[in-house]
Amino acid sequence: MNKKLTIIIALQALLIVTLFWVLVFYGRDEYEAYRAEQQEEIESPSRVSEKDGINVVRLPPVTQQNSGITTAKVSSAKFQGAIKSYGNVVSIDSLTEAKARALSLKTDIALARAASVSNMQQYHRLKTLNADDKNVSDRAVQEALAAVNADNAKITASELQLKNLQTSMKLQWGEVLTTLVFEDKLAPHLANLLERKNVLIQVSLPLKTSVPKAGSSIHVTPLNESVAPIRAVYVSPASTSDTSGFGKTFYYSAPAELLRIGMRVNVEMDPNTGDTANGIIIPSNAVIWYAGKPWAYFKQGKDQFVRKPIAADTEVATGWFNQGIDANSEVVVSGAQLLLSEEFKYLIKNENED
């Protein structure tokens, strides 16, 4: 009996040991994955840090070499040639609505002034009769004066609304386009805007570009379309910046036949005589696109990289012409996507922690 009990206990012990090792064998992958995840969470903050609101990616030289990250110094350059940029067709609905409102206010003012003249004459007539032995009552004279005062108050209120409307339009659209609302005699390219024969294009040009001269023109073509260039006439400086945030913006008027509101267009213009810009060339292989904008990673010291926005509105043979960047800068020409992934991983981690 004792021998059988001993055998049963031994078999149970063997079964327990076997089950333990089975669990260890099948749980090994999950454990390794968990440990790797924990290590990544610990190591990630050491690669990306924040300084003055800017993310800094730090990679040791050995890691840079193993990851294929290479850099090159940007080259100084002078630029003079046809300026190529982008623009977009904007809606002028607020201008047309303002014009309708302005016409309504002007009509109200004209009617109120006409009524005021008539009521003033009536008031003087009644006042004279009242003074002549009370041929009309004092009440009638008071009512006539009240009508005159009401007309004057209506004129004052409408004129104030008209002035406020004009100020608002100037702030939103600038001096030139505000004439669409308040003047009748307009240049053809402006009158055609109201008649929908032309469209308004907001164009972004490099910061060093001179302000276009009145009557000057550029050529535009719809993005990704093969059509003959369309001549657009300069209107005025734009009151808002381009969505990319780069360059100075200007308004141009162009025939509406092939252009529609919201459409992006390619822009090409000849620079003014003697307009030479100094800057640097960002190599094409250094440019990465993120959130719809062009960026490049610049090396700082031996192991730090910072992502900065660049301008992609002036393309040259070897890359993109930029201004405002130190000519001694060193830019990443290989491995920029790896740095972006590392930075993006850090950003996602921070969002999850928040």
Percent strand equals 25-35%
What string gives the helices and strands in order? HEEHEEEHHHHEEEEEEEEEEEEH
Q: Tell me, what's the shape?
A: elongated
**Level of helix content?**
40-55%
Overall residue-averaged pLDDT value: 83
How many beta strands in the DSSP annotation?
17
> How many H/I helices?
7
Strand order within the widest beta sheet: 5-6-9-8-7-10
How would you characterize the largest beta sheet?
Answer: 6 strands, antiparallel, barrel
CATH architecture of the largest domain: Beta Barrel
- Count of discrete structural domains: 3
Q: List unreliable stretches of 5+ residues.
A: 41-45
CATH T-level topology of the largest domain? conserved putative lor/sdh protein from methanococcus maripaludis s2 fold
Distance between the termini: 66 Å
CATH level-1 class of the largest domain:
Mainly Beta
Radius of gyration: 37 Å
Give the structural class: alpha+beta
Question: Can you tag this structure with a few keywords?
Answer:
354 residues; alpha+beta; conserved putative lor/sdh protein from methanococcus maripaludis s2 fold; Elongation Factor Tu (Ef-tu), domain 3; 3 domains; six-stranded antiparallel beta barrel; five-stranded antiparallel β-sheet; 7 helices; elongated
